[in-house]
Every structure is written in C-alpha cells, then in structure tokens.
From TrEMBL:
Any single Gene Ontology cellular-component annotation: extracellular space
Residues in the signal sequence: 1-34
Localization: Secreted
Keywords: Cytokine, Secreted, Signal
InterPro entries: 4_helix_cytokine-like_core (IPR009079), PRF/CT (IPR010681)
Protein's name in the database: Ciliary neurotrophic factor
Gene3D superfamilies assigned to the protein according to its UniProt record, in alphabetical order: 1.20.1250.10
Chief location bin: secreted
Native organism taxonomy: Eukaryota, Metazoa, Chordata, Craniata, Vertebrata
An MF annotation (GO) of this entry: cytokine activity
Family: Belongs to the IL-6 superfamily.
Entries under SUPFAM superfamilies matching the protein: 4-helical cytokines
Keyword Secreted attached: yes
Coiled coil start-end: none
C-alpha cells in the first residue's frame, strides 16, 4: 500500500494525534529548565535544518509543477518510484525503533534522495543546455530548477553530515553510515526507470515524484528529530523506549 499516511486522511489524523499525545507525555516528564545534553543540542540543530530544507523543497515542488507540468495544482499519489524510500509508517513500530536504528535509516534514506536528485538534475541540465541555445541571458537573475535542486542537495549533504556525527557520538558498531564525501550512484535504480528512451513528459513526472516524496519524507524526518531531541532532553535515568 503506497503512502499510508497520505492516502488515508482519517488514519493520518489518528497518527498525528497519537504522536502529539506521546510528545506531550514526554515533555511533561522532563522539566522545562533541564539543561540539554550535547546530543539534544545536535538533534535541535538537525530539526531546524530539516524544517528549513522541507520549506525549500515545498517551494521548489510548487515551482516545478508550475513550470514543468504546467499545472501548479497537479497531484497524483498513484505515481511512484520503487527505488525511493518507503513513506509508509506503522506508529507503534516507529516508536519502538532504537535511536541508532532511526539515525542509520535516515542516513541511508537521505543518500537515496540525494542520488535521485543528482540524476534528475543532470538530466535537466542536459535538456536545458539544448533548449537554451541561441536564447538570451535575461532570465539568469533567477535560479534555474537544476540550480535550485543543487541547493537542496547541499542541504541534504549537510543533514547527512549531522546524522553521521550523531551516529558516531552513540558509538554504535551496528551501523555503517553513508559518507557524504564519497557519494556515488549506489541506490540501485533499474535501467528501465531512467532509460534514455523515456518520454519528456514521463521524465518530468519522475522529477515530480522525487520532489513530492522528498517533501513527505522530510515531514517524517522532522518527527524523528523531534522525538530524538525530546528523549535526549530527559533527565538521566528517566526510562523510555528506543535508546
């Protein structure tokens, strides 16, 4: 089932209600004046970065739909790329995840989105080079969509660096974070998914799917960092699940 959070409005509201109730419970367990530890501060920075990146992606998605699909209201949740991270979430399973497991998954998923964006950006740059031959530079004042995608990629690299640092801080030998300094095309996209024979319209739909799913994923990652920050703000010895 594709996008349980997005496809079932009542289920989505229930999940958010449960999440809000859980976070309220945790906040009541921790004094507001408690001095946060190093990881709590690190998660706060990651949360802020994630929110900023989410806002940029949301803005870029709207522009992409307007300029590439000629319809700023375009929406089709039936379209999917199986090589992107799943956005389906079981609330109880999500709560029970270990902290290192949550961060390791985030590191992998961020890299996957980075790689998809990189491939799409290169495709659009090639298409743009052909289309811009003989045209004036009067529109150069505004960043092109590929340039905006590259900015998003930098944001994702920054987030990966933060996540990998947090993983190291936990000293877990069970994880193997992806280094943003050695990024390659490793996500295993099938040749058919990105075949050169793909029509221009299908290629543009792929870009829409990537940005749409990235926006949804960053909303999910925001909840992850909110939970991690709250957990690591608790006084030492406070029992909770997921450590």
């Amino acid at each position: 089932v594709y996008h349980e959070f997005c496809n079932h409005s009542h289920g989505n509201m229930a999940v958010w209600w449960l999440f809000s109730l859980f976070m309220f419970h945790l906040s009541c367990m921790s004094p507001s004046c408690a001095h946060p530890g190093g990881l709590s501060k690190a998660f706060s920075y990651s949360l802020k970065s994630t929110r900023c990146t989410h806002a940029r992606v949301k803005q870029l998605l709207r522009r992409y739909k307007e300029e590439q699909l000629d319809d700023v209201q375009f929406e089709d949740r039936n379209l999917e790329l199986k090589t992107l991270p799943s956005l389906s979430t079981d609330f109880n399973q999500w709560l029970q995840m270990k902290d290192w497991e949550r961060l390791s998954t985030a590191s992998h998923d961020l890299h996957t989105f980075w790689a998809h964006l990189d491939r799409k950006r290169r495709e659009m740059e090639e298409e743009g080079d052909r289309a811009s031959q003989g045209m004036s530079n009067r529109r150069k004042a505004k960043l092109s969509i590929p340039e905006s995608i590259q900015c998003i990629q930098k944001d994702l690299r920054d987030l990966m660096t933060k996540v990998n640092f947090q993983l190291k801080s936990m000293n877990s030998s069970s994880v193997s974070p992806t280094s943003p300094n050695t990024m390659t095309w490793q996500v295993g996209l099938s040749t058919s998914s990105w075949a050169k024979s793909t029509s221009l319209w299908a290629s543009r739909l792929e870009g829409y799917i990537i940005l749409r799913d990235l926006e949804s994923y960053l909303s999910k990652l925001t909840r992850d960092f909110t939970l991690l920050r709250t957990r690591h703000s608790l006084p030492p010895g406070t029992p909770h699940r997921g450590r």
